[in-house]
Amino acid sequence: MAAFLRRLATAAPALRYNALCGQSRIESSKFRFPIGTITAVTAGFSYMFYASTSNLVHLAPNCEEDGQKVALKPDKWIEFELQDVARVSHNTNLYRFSFDPSEKLGVDVASCIVTRAPIDKDEQGEVKYVARSYTPISDPEAKGYFDLLIKIYPQGKMTQHFAKLKPGDKLEVKGPIRKLKYSPNMKKHIGMIAGGTGITPMLQVIDAIAKNQDDITQVSLIFANVSADDILLKEKLDKLAACHPNIKVFYTVSNPPRGWKGGKGHVSKDMIIKCLPSPGNDALILVCGPPGMMKHICGPKNKDFTQGELGGLLKDLGYSKDMVFKF
């Protein structure tokens, strides 16, 4: 992580310290990157396709709020130039893409973008693409750039494309895809269950609540990972919890290290009962993670990516379909 921050500092000379909760911020004329807001990607949990067509589903309208121009288009692939790339860990890189500095990207909470890359040609010579959805890590209000944190998988067709990108290369992007339209105080208590890179949409919502003094929503997060080393953004989450009494975080890992004080094993009924809001009209449970986890916690989404029937632990514990949202 230290090497990663030094790399960013090379591109952005001024490192300023924000005394509010000890949050660091890197600033320059090109970069305004809150270190504490680094998040992960949805790792393609949403959907993928191989096709020569550019048609996509679940795209939100292109909104230009308050007359501000946005860079994304819901019905057109737009090329964004890679400005810089920095290694975060042995298998994770930070990618910053740039665009017109007078524009916002055009995403809201909680939404993601779709990226695509050519992988082959069919028998007719038409280009075949692989596409994945990712959640930008940058503030939705940021102008002129967006950041993606990508975990590179050896067999991942899209992430292998990312691994080959160099500054100056272009990435095709479309969107946004709106998941949950969050509004302040929409529920009294929001519970969250995330696994691995499924933390991304959760952090979008948490950040929105944390930076709005008028939003008094209670947030309780259960974050499940294989090991303690796999916990993404732990420092960020711990700072949020320390600075905001309405935000609580509980970690559970399958392979706990010696002295581990968090949960052990997969998310259980007991963890949900102790950590999350009870079923009720003022409660909402958000869930995001790999397919096996989704099935265990709430049941899978439908093949067309609609919510599907509620199942798993949440159904067993008495939650209803309208109290749960599956990312």
TrEMBL record:
Keywords: FAD, Flavoprotein, Mitochondrion, NAD, Oxidoreductase. It is found in: Mitochondrion. FAD binds at R132, Y134, L149, K151, K157, M158, T200. GO terms for cellular component: mitochondrion. Residues 75-183 form the FAD-binding FR-type domain. InterPro entries: CBR-like, Cbr1-like_FAD-bd_dom, FAD-bd_FR_type, Flavoprot_Pyr_Nucl_cyt_Rdtase, FNR_nucleotide-bd, OxRdtase_FAD/NAD-bd, Riboflavin_synthase-like_b-brl. Its cofactor is FAD. CDD domains: cyt_b5_reduct_like. It catalyses: 2 Fe(III)-[cytochrome b5] + NADH = 2 Fe(II)-[cytochrome b5] + NAD(+) + H(+). It holds the Pfam family NAD_binding_1. Its EC number is 1.6.2.2. Coiled coil: none annotated. PANTHER family: NADH-CYTOCHROME B5 REDUCTASE (PTHR19370), NADH-CYTOCHROME B5 REDUCTASE 2 (PTHR19370:SF171). Belongs to the flavoprotein pyridine nucleotide cytochrome reductase family. This is NADH-cytochrome b5 reductase. The gene is LOC111465602.
